[in-house]
């Protein structure tokens, strides 16, 4: 009996010492809604922006509310709203298409709504695709990086809407990199493409809603190749988020993460995509695509992992640490081969300059393993894609000459401050 009494006393004491999640509003303890995305705001206001309209929807699996219900299903059942068309970007509406594979016209099996492909022979909606809609809703999670093709789809959608007298309604979502990271030069003439469609930096520090406003107001809707003489402007509505601020990265939002593409499994992956993605276009070194760390590592068969990590850490790059790693990729570059390299850790996000990391990696490869210099050994047929993603031929050509990041640093960052000043006019959030 005495033993039982002691146990009861101990349990009571523990309950007093350990704070209850329901009793204490502690963000470390409790899961509380911090941010409402555009679709959550739209639901809460009774879909007022869509009332009485026939709606087309551009989305993918990342288009969900904070309870992980698909925007497709929400709008299909929304009172006063008629969902009449779906448009499939890269990977498809339901995310069942592999990266780079064409999306086909289809019928959504759950709702019975026709699906039109925007990632195949047609990337810009045709008049026939738009004839039955009053407005096109866009709801896709962005990653804040110019080469992520969903913003290109958005631009072509806005252009088509302008040409066909249709409204565009963007349901805003967080930029997972926050609203302050701007890196890279503006896209230059001859380098506009589906992976660099607009005259914006590689990291642009805007939400997709803010970006849409900027594209619309700054005369950037000029066609897929950026060469059309006619500038168009659409009837644009942005449904803003609630609770988001510019200093928030995705994990600060408390929102669930749904991968917008197969190699973006975690929100944190967005932080590493710009750190290795340009290098990855050369297909010469593994960047973790095909292993369990997409974009978060760099490796090759000829790298001594410990020595390479030591060399990169000796550079003392702000906010970045490198750990030696040995891997055997399951597919893609280096499939089935033992490779040494580094795993990248961003230790201070605000201080880290994300896009420069890959250039420093190439620099150290050239110094330590000159026979494996990246530009000298990579498939030259892939140089064009490297230039398109970089937005400039100069970056590759100058770096090839010296193998030193310092020789392209000023050029890579030359447009950052002017873009920040220009884009600030379109901020929806402080």
Describe the structure.
This protein has a seven-stranded mixed beta sheet with strand order 3-4-2-1-5-6-9, sandwiched between helices. 47% of the residues are buried. 30% of the residues lie in helices and 14% in strands. By secondary structure, it is α/β, with parallel strands linked by helices. α3 (71-76) links the parallel β1 (53-59) and β2 (81-88). It is built from 14 helices and twelve strands. α5 packs across α6 (208-217) and α12 (393-402) runs antiparallel to α13. It has helices at residues 2-17, 38-44, 71-76, 127-130, 150-164, 208-217, 269-280, 305-314, 356-368, 374-377, 383-390, 393-402, 406-412, 416-423; strands at residues 53-59, 81-88, 106-107, 114-117, 135-139, 167-171, 182-183, 203-204, 235-239, 297-300, 320-327, 339-346.
Q: Main attributes?
A:
7-stranded mixed β-sheet; 430 residues; Rossmann fold; disordered N terminus; single chain; alpha/beta; globular; Aspartate Aminotransferase, domain 1
């Amino acid at each position: 009996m005495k033993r039982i009494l002691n146990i009861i006393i101990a349990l009571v004491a523990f309950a007093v010492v350990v704070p209850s999640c329901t009793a204490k509003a502690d963000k470390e303890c409790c899961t509380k809604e911090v941010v409402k995305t555009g679709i959550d705001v739209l639901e809460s206001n009774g879909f007022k922006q869509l009332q009485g309209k026939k709606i087309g929807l551009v989305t993918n699996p990342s288009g969900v509310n904070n309870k992980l219900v698909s925007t497709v299903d929400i709008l299909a059942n929304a009172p006063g709203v008629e969902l009449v068309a779906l448009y499939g970007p890269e990977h498809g509406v339901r995310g069942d298409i592999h990266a780079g594979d064409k999306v086909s016209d289809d019928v959504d099996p759950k709702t019975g709504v026709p699906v039109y492909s925007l990632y195949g022979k047609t990337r810009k909606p045709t008049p026939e695709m738009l004839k039955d809609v009053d407005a096109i809703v866009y709801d896709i999670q962005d990653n804040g990086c110019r080469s992520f093709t969903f913003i290109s789809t958005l631009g072509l959608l806005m252009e088509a809407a302008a040409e066909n007298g249709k409204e565009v309604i963007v349901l805003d979502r967080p930029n997972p990199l926050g609203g302050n990271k701007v890196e890279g030069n503006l896209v230059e003439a001859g380098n506009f493409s589906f992976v660099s469609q607009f005259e914006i930096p590689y990291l642009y520090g805007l939400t997709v809603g803010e970006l849409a406003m900027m594209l619309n107001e700054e005369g950037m809707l000029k066609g897929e190749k950026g060469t059309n003489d006619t500038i168009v402007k659409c009837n644009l509505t942005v449904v803003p988020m609630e609770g988001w601020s510019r200093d928030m990265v995705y994990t600060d939002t408390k929102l669930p993460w749904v991968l917008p593409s197969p190699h973006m499994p975690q929100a944190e992956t967005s932080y590493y995509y710009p750190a290795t993605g340009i290098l990855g276009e050369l297909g010469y070194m593994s960047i973790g695509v095909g292993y369990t760390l997409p974009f978060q590592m760099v490796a090759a068969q000829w790298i001594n992992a410990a020595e390479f990590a030591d060399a990169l850490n000796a550079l003392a790059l702000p906010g970045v640490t490198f750990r030696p790693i040995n891997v055997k990729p399951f597919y893609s570059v280096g499939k089935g081969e033992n490779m040494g390299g580094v795993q990248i850790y961003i230790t201070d996000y605000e201080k880290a300059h994300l896009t420069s990391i890959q250039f420093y990696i190439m620099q150290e490869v050239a110094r330590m393993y000159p026979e494996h210099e990246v530009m000298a050994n990579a498939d030259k047929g892939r140089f064009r894609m490297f230039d398109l993603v970089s937005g400039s031929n100069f970056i590759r050509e100058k770096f090839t000459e010296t193998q030193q990041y310092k020789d392209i640093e000023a050029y890579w960052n030359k447009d950052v401050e002017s873009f920040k000043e220009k884009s600030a006019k379109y901020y929806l959030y402080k």
